[in-house]
Design a protein that fits this description.
28% strand; homohexamer; NAGK-C (chains A, B, C, D, E, F); four-stranded mixed beta barrel; globular; Carbamate kinase
Chain lengths: 301, 301, 301, 301, 301, 301
């Protein structure tokens, strides 16, 4: 049982954060376990609504790999992979789009509205939000790096954010599927971390928060004792170069790097397996996950 | 070859319609063959963009029955029907939503943007646009009408149109999937004709245009010589009551009736199999399909 | 020590209140010990700033009896009292105004700004905010009630709230001294509880919170065991009539009654001697002080 | 008889032009036969209204030489000419102003409003729209060019376009008489082609269309076979210098040159003797008259 | 020589009028000698600009009978009269329009702008400002009143004041010629007093000031000693009925009556032969001309 | 007695000033006898209201030395002085604030509102309007200048004028007490002349008018025959340097110099002992007091 004095202390602890973030944009990449476990899902939705009512402008970008895989399986569609990326033919990208836009996005929008927000789902096709270009997989062959066409996997080429900003200005929470539209009219599936990082940059966000399934970043990802709570931009770039970062973590760190370079104040990799980690990260002094910042003040790794 | 004088005459024929519709809202139900044939599809998209640039505020509601059926088949999901309506369990409505929102809506939005408009897709879940209630199928049994629960098939309960109006005010073309959200959070598939009729009513539209695959309405639908080009509200209601209208046409006529009752000036059932029938209906004196109006000036059935 | 899980639970407990009060006006009467004790003062100031950053529009009305008495004493000015009200000649009201406007109001404004808000002080003379009329003291003499002129003590005659609303719309916190201006140009000192109640009514506030030095209301104010946490409008009126309420509490309860009658949803008498009682009352389920509401749902007295 | 398919093809031919000109300003110099023949007059008025309802912002500048000459004759006022320009004393310019502002402008405004637009007439005196300076006629005498004062004939010195822009923003069609006001308060009659060109430049118009009584420009104006449908800015300047352009055509070409130099995208000299030539020029692929553009893509002279 | 103390007293005398008229609309009928004499003309123009800079929204309606008569004479056009009204054929009304719009209006606009205002001229055709109907002259024949068609003399049928209000809102002074447009497209010449009265009514003006060439109203217009400085609405109506008012004064008094009935606070008939009579009437306590008011406070006739 | 012609001439004399100052900001330092004498007080208040209704945006800064001294005396608080500045301990500055904000400011606001304006009082603490720093007194000791701490006497460090501009935009007259807030939260008393000069600079005022108790500036302040009606910026700076200006006049001249340097067009030192000197200075050609301007056109000292 928490008593009145304690309750008051928690609320007052939140006050400087309320003041600092008031009116600012925060981009949240929502993915991993926090999308699959019903209780965690409810927690994240509540956290986003809390942000909204605390005067913040939250923008949600979601992933959905496991559900796409599930649907491909149901439809008897087999996938091959190149350098960890799914070879994505026209049928596959159509299925990915259907699942992301027509299932996952719809579900997040529904939950946000059900708990009292006003959310609107967007895909990158809406108002040409995400213009994409084909992403070529890098394959190391005979000591050389070759680029391989793996189909409709895309990179963000350009963001037309006016639809997002107009929805934010009117009090809506935009929920965005990482589907891009090519200049040739083709549909592209894009890594949601990159979309979130680029959006944070383009919107001049105050913060980028990537919700994932790990505790954060380790100096040596094979050694849990090397956990880092704060990483500078330079250190992050160094770790990418030297391969100190685990494969799945690379797009996350690269998204942080891109956002920071564009002026976003802070980026965070948050462990979505802990309830309300987003809320705690933003409104308390608790150390949650790893923050990547332009310059590090002190070392606590 | 059309010469200059003829071209000028066509443009000038359009002038009174340009003047009359300027600044008004037109709701278009887009369905049938015009969604499947690539050439017709392009025609409809061009027509909608023409409306937009002629100062009209077009709102698109789309259907998608055949594509839903196709996907259910691919997923090995069999359907049973009651009174012509598909029995729709939770899995079925999820697939319907995925196809409508993640495939058909996305495709229409993409085409509109590709040809120079700014379109944004919406489902009834976005900003709680379409609040739905369970629709009970009416079954005649032993001379009595019984209501039967057929799952997640919905009726429009309430429309929260502010997201649609705000998008229109900013110059976007809203494209809407006929998916509703129940007060209990359940997803409902709704007949797109009804959604279009209710939207036309709620938005105070000037016109409702239902694009379909038939020439229009017949006094006796088994006798093609009884084609009607203009029908009054009263006649339409009478024909519904007496069963003079074909099953598939009933929701269309009911949508017209509802829109007219709410003050929409004119409603149209347009044959989408003819190229640019929407454009011709709005900007020329050509008689296209059947118009249902509050009061009929003269009889031409 | 409060752990992460507990912190999250406190914040999430606040969410429904954030949602409910978002964009609404709350009028706070700030008086009593919470104005004299430096720690309590800082707490109240933080609470008000918290409200502001939580999307609420706080309006502060302050009292200042003890400080006025102190200054009168310093200036060698003696006071007489009629029915508990100070006989207030022109010199006295000028001193009261000087202390309220030039000392107490200035101090509150300074503290709010120092902790990060944008506050602006107002007296009832600014933009003719508080139009006052002379208040006549009621004296019981020989079994009859006579009205006695006690000088420049005023009642609220009319409120011109546009300056308050315009400051609120621009994000300022208005801090108001209970000084009124007569139609004849005379200055009147008004009970701050009444000013707060009338302002809550005139502004269509969602809540009126009166910070005072007692726990709340007792059914029998001589018996502490008769504490009431919820009182209905009817009960409050009855208690005033039957004399069940202590003298000092009467203006507070009357202010609540007036605000409720004008449509304010809830009014509260809060014990300012407990730290952050305002914050706890608004953002938690804690039972703080006595609430006076239009209709009581259940009895817990 | 034009059938449905042909009608649709004409409308769709107009679509790219609707898209391109939407929201842009088009300045139309209205003069010549199209002002005198009632049928042609109605055509031009309809064309301008069509532009308006197609989302364009039309601005009309009119001439009126023949009507001024007629009124001078009626009043028994004889004119002398220097280098083709009328010597204009104070009485003459007053008559010119009366005819232009009180007769021709009024008539155009009336017709536009009668056919459903909202037009407002302006002279250069309204809100000091056209500040003028005296134009000196150039006379060749003994092989030298001398400047001769011919009275109240003016050049555009400065345009105060805010009244025009404000009327456009509110949906009015401004109709402008080519009367200027000198810094000394004197009235000046200005060539309407120059006023139109300068206005197109000052308003950042997309197009300048000069309606006249000839087919267009000829490389050698004495040889009809040398008709030019597209002329580059450089070619136009060269033709003026070398005298390849007919006297009456010089101000038109100079107006085009000035507008193009200021960033107007295209200028057109249109044959007003053909019905709806303005409409055809803007909304069809028909080759109407001569266009003068910054750079010519191909030669078709 | 006026000394400082006197100057200050005149300015302070104006203060209550500045306060009372601030932001209000005043309609001024400008006619008579004050239009012909250059010094008086300059005075009136200065007075109007003074009003504008004193925070008033002046609207000017002008007459021009003498100048029309002059031009008709120059053009050898003879006029006949019925009941004091000129029989006005199409040619005559065209000349009247030319003189009013193209000469007198232009001149007033020029002078206002020259002295530092921003004026815009309007005729009743601009934006369909004055919709007119044919006025039938009343002729007494054999003891009966017959209506006689005298051509294009009009009555105000309807005023579309939005162009006037929009110009006022943007700080322009509208100057209006009393030319009306019939529903059939015909041009009508209307008495400027009636136009001014109707405009004052339609605009909700605070005051109507009619500048004329007489001292004001006399109870018996043949006896100068019966001058009236204040007349009530009822008295004015009575005087019209009993023929106590001179022919030329009738439209002025009727204009006042109509404006007062529609809520205009005060109407004035001002002697334009005295310099700055408009300014003195509005900003001083001087008794200028005759005021016609709803109710008279005291009698001074 | 002033006759009509004279009245008109005074009003017309004001016209160019009305035109020039329309929409501009004028900062008025209100001090000296004009604050103590009831008749002069009323005059100044009327003058300020006249400015307001003449389309000017007046801002009032007031002093109050004598009243502060009076209150200190009443409270038995003795003062010492260093270089003419009062040594101001915490108690003294609190009393100064009380008198300035709670008495003098309140009184001015009341009078302005009573005579028909809408005034709002501000202290430098409201919305952190005046950020102050400690002013160190300069003391000449043994031929050297030493800086001495004399307590809570302040200099303007920074002005946050948005509250002033927002009140002006909404038609309020801001009345400002010269109390500043230190970055440490301490209260500072500041010379009102400096506050007025800095405000004029920060607001981009057109004029700064300092109402005082002397005729103006003398070249030699001991010789009344050396009165100067116009002083250039350079001359003023020279006179300060050479000690040609009387002690009490120094802050006034320095305020003028600072305002002029920041782009204020004209500054004035006005003799408040003459009735309506502010009005006469602004709206007539009368020579009132001394104007300090950037460059002097002619010498009249």
């Amino acid at each position: 049982m928490i008593n009145s004095v304690e309750k008051a202390s928690v609320l007052i602890e939140a006050l400087p954060y309320l003041q600092r973030f008031s009116g600012n944009t925060v981009v949240i990449k929502y993915g991993g376990n926090a999308m699959l476990n019903d209780e965690l899902k409810k927690n994240v939705i509540q956290d986003i609504i809390f942000l909204k009512y605390a005067g913040i402008r939250p923008v949600v970008v979601h992933g959905g790999g496991p559900e796409i895989t599930g649907m491909l399986k149901k439809l008897g569609k087999e996938s091959s992979f190149v350098s960890g990326l799914r070879v994505t033919d026209a049928e596959t990208v159509a299925i990915a789009e259907m699942v992301l836009v027509g299932k996952i996005n719809s579900e997040i929008v529904k939950l946000l509205n059900f708990l009292g927000a006003k959310a609107v789902g967007l895909s990158g096709k809406d108002a040409d939000l995400i213009i994409a270009a084909k992403h070529l997989a890098k394959v190391r062959e005979n000591g050389q790096v070759k680029e391989v066409d793996i189909g409709f996997v895309g990179d963000v080429l350009k963001l037309n954010t006016s639809i997002v900003e107009s929805l934010l200005d009117q009090g809506y929470i935009p929920v965005i599927s990482p589907i891009g539209i090519g200049k040739d009219g083709a549909t592209y599936n894009i890594n949601a971390d990159y979309v979130a990082g680029d959006l944070a940059a383009a919107l001049g966000a105050e913060k980028l928060a990537l919700i994932t399934d790990v505790e954060g970043i380790y100096r040596d990802y094979k050694d849990k004792s090397t956990f880092v709570s704060t990483l500078s931009l330079a250190e992050a770039q160094e770790m990418i170069k030297t391969g100190g970062i685990d494969g799945g973590m690379i797009p996350k760190v690269e998204a942080c790097v891109k956002a920071l370079a564009a002026g976003v104040a802070k980026t965070h990799i948050i462990d979505g397996r802990n309830p309300h980690s987003l809320l705690l990260e933003i409104f308390t002094t608790e150390g949650i996950g790893t923050e990547v910042v332009k310059y590090r003040r002190y070392i606590n790794g």
